[in-house]
Write a structure and sequence with these properties.
By secondary structure, the chain is α+β, with helices and mostly antiparallel strands. Helix content is 28%, strand content 29%. The chain has a four-stranded mixed beta sheet with strand order 1-7-6-5, with helices on one face. It has a three-stranded antiparallel beta sheet with strand order 2-3-4, with no helix packed on it.
Length: 180
């Protein structure tokens, strides 16, 4: 049994009482998480590193854009960021709501009009549309699941980048029974 919840973009201007979780009780300036990355490369191939971690992120472009497809494109990474950030944020929200979660499956479909990127036409180089579909195992449905979905979207930094950019946004969540 599952519940399907889908909605198109609605402004994320509300704050649900009792959901906001501070990292600490220090001043807001100290209550931020700094990030720093460095990318190096030639042409359309690059490697990104974060000096504070051992991780590297290779990127390349499609052959049509002058690349060799030796690594995912930056466009793929932007969508991967959305899917993984949704899961991480959802796990934090579930903890705050007292929800037990099981397996996640997050998929993203997106359309990009390459006219600005490739042909230098006037306009917005942003994604035309993004459809996020989340399937997650949990024991509670109904209003609790809707709150979980809405709060995850509101608190996910990557979701908010897309939602507030003006892209056509679709956010569909499917609740699956939590396996014992």
């Amino acid at each position: 049994m599952h519940a399907l919840l889908a909605r198109s973009y609605r402004p994320a201007t509300h704050i649900s009482p009792g959901i906001v979780r501070a990292f600490s009780t220090t001043s807001p300036k100290l209550n931020t998480i700094p990030f720093h990355i460095i990318s190096t490369g030639t042409g359309v191939t690059s490697t990104t590193t974060s000096p504070s971690t051992p991780h590297t992120i290779p990127a390349d472009a499609y052959p049509a854009f002058g690349g060799s497809a030796s690594a995912p494109t930056p466009l793929h990474y932007s969508l991967a960021s959305l899917s993984t950030c949704t899961q991480v944020t959802g796990s934090l929200v579930a903890k705050d709501l007292g929800l037990a979660l099981g397996e996640w499956k997050v998929s993203v479909d997106a359309e990009l009009d390459p006219a600005v990127l490739v042909q230098a036409q006037e306009g917005n180089a942003n994604w035309k549309s993004i459809a996020l579909r989340v399937e997650v195992e949990t024991e509670k449905g109904g209003e609790v699941f809707e709150r979980f979905r809405d709060e995850t979207e509101r608190r996910c930094p990557i979701s908010q980048l897309f939602v507030r950019s003006g892209v056509q946004w679709r956010n569909e969540w499917v609740r699956r029974e939590l396996k014992a």
